[in-house]
Amino acid sequence: MADRTGYDVAVVGAGYVGVPLAATFAEADCRVLLVDVLENVVAALNRGESHIADVPSDRLAPLVERGVVHATTSYEELREAEAILIALPTPLSHQREPDLSIVEGAARRIGEVLREGQLVVLESTTWPGTTRERLQPILEEASGLKAGEGFFLAMSPERVDPGREDWTTKTTPKVLGGITPECTQRAAALYRRAIDTVHELTSPEAAELTKLLENIFRSVNIALVNELAILCDRMGIDIWEVVDAAATKPFGYMRFSPGPGLGGHCIPVDPFYLTWKAREFGFYTEFIELAGKVNEEMPYFCRSLVSQALNHHAQRAMKGSRILVLGVAYKPDIGDLRESPALKLISLLQNAGAEVSYHDPHVPRIDEQGIELSAVPYEPSKYDCVVIVTDHSSVDYEQLVDEAPLVVDLRNATGAKGAAAEHVFKL
Asked: What's the CATH code of the domain at 54?
């Protein structure tokens, strides 16, 4: 155990990855420093108030009161930590290329205060080679120390799935790879203090690619079932019946469901890291890029479904129709809007002349991608059409079938009752 006047772990980035990391290490009797640039976030954390749903305030507050979690805006305090974990965003630019500016900027500031013997681990998802080719030179230049000798450097990609209770930061196996074998060993020893299972790899590149493979696997399989959903619509076959039937096979098949598109911080973004990096080697990841194309087209197909439902059932045009979008978060029972397909679908419906409102118990307001809307009360009977985009568990979907004059169900939330109702149209 480290000197209790210092910190065992410092986490740079108090977001959906950093705060659960901090809580997990603190609950393992480690002293944790959280560093973030937002003063209001830091002040709230030091009051024991959490802005991250996976770490509610009643979990964070006792850790703050015990003095095992402290937040700051000062990078200077990183000197007091044994290890520094970087958990910052790596978004895509408008040209769909990796934007490492946030991580690189933080790395320069870390390098300026880095002292001999400290461990630095990158948790942010990125392309293979980032740790060695981008992070290492910045840290070495700013600190005057050499990775693997003066300080230790590794990569261990976050694998957080917000809202899950069965697999948490503590119970999800950790993969990691260091610049040198000793870097790997140091990182593994750190994570074993708080994480149940640690899997060591031979390099940071292997760790970086592991995370990309996990999310590319999901992207490709979701694209496959989305493409089949479009085909099933033309063939008059119920895609949900087919998916349910295929899922009865106990081997050789994994269930994936169609939907209005991909959302979240990983699956819509991560594959593009690899396609961008592959071009450096004269290689084109056509399979991955095709999956991205299929998934990005789904909001357009879903808009067409809404138009068809209005025309065929209500004899109404899209223009002037009152549409309630039910659920706008990217997945059920959370309030996260990142890359949510609901945003694109709302924009498409508005552009077609519809009067669009939304209800989501987890998202009180949208102010993104040119959309400015506040959530409305749940009154489905007041709308010409209700479109189920995100199937939050708090909604009674059988009752919705009874109350709404027209439903377009993009998630099979209405089940058998919806399948039997003439006014319910399914993806």
From this structure: 3.40.50.720
